[in-house]
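Anyone able to model this chain together with calcium ion?
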Amino acid sequence: MNRFAVAVAAAIALGVPAWADVTEADIANDALTTADVVTNGMGRALQRYSPLDILNKQNVRKLTPVWAFSLGGEKQRGQESQPLVRDGVMYITGSYSRVYAIDIATGREIWQYDARLPEGILPCCDVVNRGAALYGDKLYFGTLDARIVALNAKTGAVVWNKRIADYKEGYSFTAAPMIVNGLVITGNSGGEFGIVGAVEARDAETGELVWRRPVIEGHMGELNGKPSTMTGTLNATWPGDMWKTGGGATWLGGSYDIETDTIVYGAGNPAPWNSWLRDAGQKDDGSGDNLYAASRIGLDPATGEIKWHFQTTPREGWDYDGVNEVIPFTAADGSKLFATADRNGYFYVLNREDGRFVRGFPFVKDITWSSGLDANGRPIWNEANRPGDPAKAADGQKGEVIFAAPSFLGGKNWMPMAYSQRTGLFYVPSNEWGMDIWNEPITYKAGAAYLGAGFTIKPLYEDHIGSLKAIDPITGEWKWEYKNAAPLWSGVMTTAGGLVFFGTPEGELVALDDETGEKLWSFQTGSGVVGQPITWEQDGEQYVSVISGWGGAVPLWGGEVAKKVSYLNQGAMLWTFKLPRELAQN
Ligand code: CA
Ligand code: CA
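re: yes, here you go
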């Protein structure tokens, strides 16, 4: 137990008043302190690894529910939140921009906050929310009308409420904010509406903007109320005015590498989906790449300046957003690396100093759009697998239809993977599926879908779409695979007890053996699990919590797959489990 865990344990033992302000040190050490979970990702490195081993392979079969909490109302839909735990209180966000504070001893509600959403919000892919941030005496979360709200964590009262962008243009915000050195870091959602992705930092006390970094080339950044620097070089990789509505939504939030002092954010698909409309003539010099869409970007937390970038899918044309989480880890030989599993089906390992490509390999079985990666991590395109140019079609309306894999929902979507410091493996929630996709003409109109594409998702295998894989980031080897009939859409967590937790759309919270993939325990939650499990300990007992509630993008956009899973029931229930002391001792 490190000194922070000792301090928390001492505070509980002495009966010190319930809430102690969350400090930068608490956040920096969250992954090590087992009595609380104060950050999204169980630490800003997003490893989702707990050093707890009270619960382990031998006793997990005795894991028992202790309470469940209903989010109530008719606003069920997808529940993708990760709970936070601090001083006896659990905080969750819910669909339709709601927040709950719950007594972890009893499951009783302490307070609830409902954002008043206007008519005409434009969420592309369900009305989800993926979690909150804690800092000082406040809780921070984003809303479907593209606002960031600070609440008093004790009472749920609004402290400040700021607009990120105009929801009428298609902006929203659903990711968990991140705190770095007293700044609240947020992105934006809306990549299907021709918005422009940006990362913003606000003073946590006041909500005042400190810096803003658009992630599409040609747009100007901001620092302390003044223009700072332009992102990239105007028209270096975008033709004409297309950069003005270039997409690159930063919709999944970021990670923070404390060792290099770098915030890492991903940028979504370039807009529109029809890549022929932003084709500057692909050349070996990268002049048609559409930077920094479909990229990972390293940012200076003090200024918002771009330190490095790595583009996973140049001239992207399949909706392979580059937003997936980037996880700092240290390999057995001491090398300091990042890992990320992209929508495009490739797993990338990058250098933590400069984002440089180290290695990459597929993490799904079928990739059609590319035949591999070159020495710099740049994809080797299969040009025949690019959706055809509608301008070349006989009617000028519908380009050639191609079948591409992965589907646009990705080899992996938003659902976070986990890294085990025990095994050195990443546990990657992937999906094996493809799509028919074609391009159409489109012109930009504010607040309207800006795709220029049509699509139908299709399964690739009879018996499964979901595929949780244990992947060695050094060799690229898949150690084991756990197949699931429905597409996986929940976060993964792993522990020093040798367990890998995740949920299924069929409703189970599952624990697997981290070395073999053997199923050791499961519990039927009553609705699909698309949330993110956490674990913590209190009074020597280990707890696990997860939110259940089927929804998200699959039922809305899953094509033939959506029909296959239409029998799944909605719900909205937070479950908490523990290993009771008397059972742990047997
Ligand atoms: Ca902690
Ligand atoms: Ca997208």
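Confidence is low (pLDDT under 50) at residues 1-17.
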